[in-house]
Amino acid sequence: AKETDSRIGKLSHAAQQIGEVVKLITAIAEQTNLLALNATIEAARAGEAGRGFAVVASEVKSLASQTAKATDEISSHIAGMQGATAESVAAIKEIGATIGQISSISTSIASAVEQQGAATQEIARSVQTVAQGTQTAATDIGQVNRGAAETGSASEEVLNSAKTLSSESTRLRAELDRFMANIRAA
């Protein structure tokens, strides 16, 4: 997600640079249009001798107008690309946050499994102690009951964590599908 975020940032920067070039081209087209207008005026003042020059000035003005239209269209596309880039950055940040939550849930599950393993080992030790003698049987049975309660509690934690992980996974899938749809739409 961080690498994709970096790449989208570079794409956004490149789009901004293209936007600056488009502004320069627009300024040149406007200046060319003014020059063509001045040339048309001067050709009209020259009368018959300036007729050929007037045709050239008219063509230059037409090219300047076409350039202005093209740069407007490019600017529109760049604005759309920058908007899509911003949406992508936001979606990637959401995905990163969701991945962080899933990681936290996974850590909780691992901890619960570790607790369950420890509780299971405690139960096994308690059973061995019961086998060694009837005098300590009552005490050992109490420990087994405590271990069983811990195991049940740990199992509930694992179940709850698994449900949460499943829910987060479904949400992440939906966000990923939405992100991919936005990317395809862009």
UniProtKB/TrEMBL annotation:
<dbReference type="InterPro" id="IPR004090">
    <property type="entry name" value="Chemotax_Me-accpt_rcpt"/>
</dbReference>
<dbReference type="GO" id="GO:0005886">
    <property type="term" value="C:plasma membrane"/>
</dbReference>
<dbReference type="GO" id="GO:0007165">
    <property type="term" value="P:signal transduction"/>
</dbReference>
<dbReference type="InterPro" id="IPR000727">
    <property type="entry name" value="T_SNARE_dom"/>
</dbReference>
<dbReference type="Pfam" id="PF00015">
    <property type="entry name" value="MCPsignal"/>
</dbReference>
<comment type="similarity">
    <text>Belongs to the methyl-accepting chemotaxis (MCP) protein family.</text>
</comment>
<dbReference type="GO" id="GO:0006935">
    <property type="term" value="P:chemotaxis"/>
</dbReference>
<protein>
    <submittedName>
        <fullName>Methyl-accepting chemotaxis protein</fullName>
    </submittedName>
</protein>
<dbReference type="GO" id="GO:0004888">
    <property type="term" value="F:transmembrane signaling receptor activity"/>
</dbReference>
<dbReference type="InterPro" id="IPR004089">
    <property type="entry name" value="MCPsignal_dom"/>
</dbReference>
<keyword id="KW-0997">Cell inner membrane</keyword>
<feature type="domain" description="T-SNARE coiled-coil homology">
    <location>
        <begin position="82"/>
        <end position="144"/>
    </location>
</feature>
<keyword id="KW-1003">Cell membrane</keyword>
<keyword id="KW-0807">Transducer</keyword>
<feature type="domain" description="Methyl-accepting transducer">
    <location>
        <begin position="1"/>
        <end position="166"/>
    </location>
</feature>
<keyword id="KW-0472">Membrane</keyword>
